[in-house]
UniProtKB/TrEMBL annotation:
Protein name: Aminoglycoside phosphotransferase domain-containing protein
Transmembrane segments: none
Record domain Aminoglycoside phosphotransferase: where: 55-243
Family matches, as Gene3D superfamilies: 3.90.1200.10
Annotated source species: Actinopolymorpha cephalotaxi
């Protein structure tokens, strides 16, 4: 079944109403989750349509980001602008943003890419901040929930992780608008300029949570990339204790989520991250 065929009847009717006779140019769907991503052409203009299935909760986050937080990027042409949306149908359409994915591109190893990405992220984070007394408690509960679901974390390791999480304090957190998956897979480069896509994990979180994917991959392989990113961002918000809690949560979530969707290489990365952070004591 093609991704286009997986759209609900309501989603197909909405697309036909919004962009009558639009041609599907390319299917950008991942296939691991129920989100359909289609590149469309209508009256010589290209668009991206994103549709969620019945289990989806990312489209609501993406729509919230478009409506509330992306103006610092869209006003500069550094993120796709929202054109149509229907929250109940779990469907949105944005303008097509030209460019190539940074992941797998020569620009993935270029410090200037990370300097630009740091500047972009600072624009997002600097819009607003709120103090939250319940964020850490909620994150701890979410992490314990991952450990209660099916996974392949060794029982003794899972027990140690559970004990560790249950011992954590729950201090007040400063939350800002975050992308939620800030890494080269969600950056485009066009004529040397880096832009951002995919806001399905956007939410209010501590700023440093947007550093975690980069820290587990690109930063560990090339210190120049981390230095350039911090230069662009303007500071390093990673307070050691909170940063360690975030890394452990990310490692557990990675191993458990990847197991559930059958992504074995990503699952292995989660297990490696768990071993590394536990080895630190």
């Amino acid at each position: 079944m093609t991704s286009e065929a997986q759209l609900s009847q309501q989603q197909r009717h909405l697309l036909e109403r919004w962009l009558p006779g639009a041609e599907v140019v390319r299917d950008h769907s991942w296939g691991l989750v129920g989100t359909v991503v289609l590149e469309l052409r209508h009256n010589a203009v290209r668009y991206i349509a994103k549709a969620g299935d019945g289990k989806d909760h990312h489209l609501a986050r993406e729509l919230r980001a478009h409506r509330n937080w992306l103006q610092p990027w869209t006003s500069r042409g550094r993120a796709p602008g929202l054109v149509y949306a229907d929250a109940d149908a779990k469907l949105l359409v944005t303008r097509y943003l030209p460019g190539e994915l940074v992941q797998g591109n020569d620009r993935e190893g270029d410090p200037d890419t990370y300097r630009q990405a740091g500047r972009l992220l600072a624009l997002l984070h600097e819009q607003l901040s709120v103090e939250d007394d319940e964020f850490e408690e909620g994150e701890n509960a979410n992490t314990l929930a991952w450990l209660n679901r099916p996974h392949r974390i060794a029982p003794d390791v899972a027990a140690r992780l559970r004990e560790t999480v249950e011992s954590w304090p729950t201090p007040t957190s400063t939350l800002v608008p975050t992308h939620g998956d800030w890494q080269p897979r969600n950056w485009l480069v066009h004529k040397g300029t880096v832009s951002a896509i995919d806001f399905g994990r956007a939410d209010l979180r501590p700023a440093f949570t947007d550093f975690v994917q980069l820290a587990t991959r690109q930063f560990r392989s090339d210190r120049r990339l981390e230095d350039a990113f911090l230069d662009g961002y303007g500071r390093d918000p990673r307070e050691p204790a909170a940063w360690r809690r975030t890394r452990i949560r990310y490692a557990i979530g990675t191993a458990a989520w990847a197991y559930q969707v059958g992504d074995e290489s990503f699952e292995e990365e989660g297990h490696r991250l768990i071993a590394e952070v536990l080895a630190e004591g």
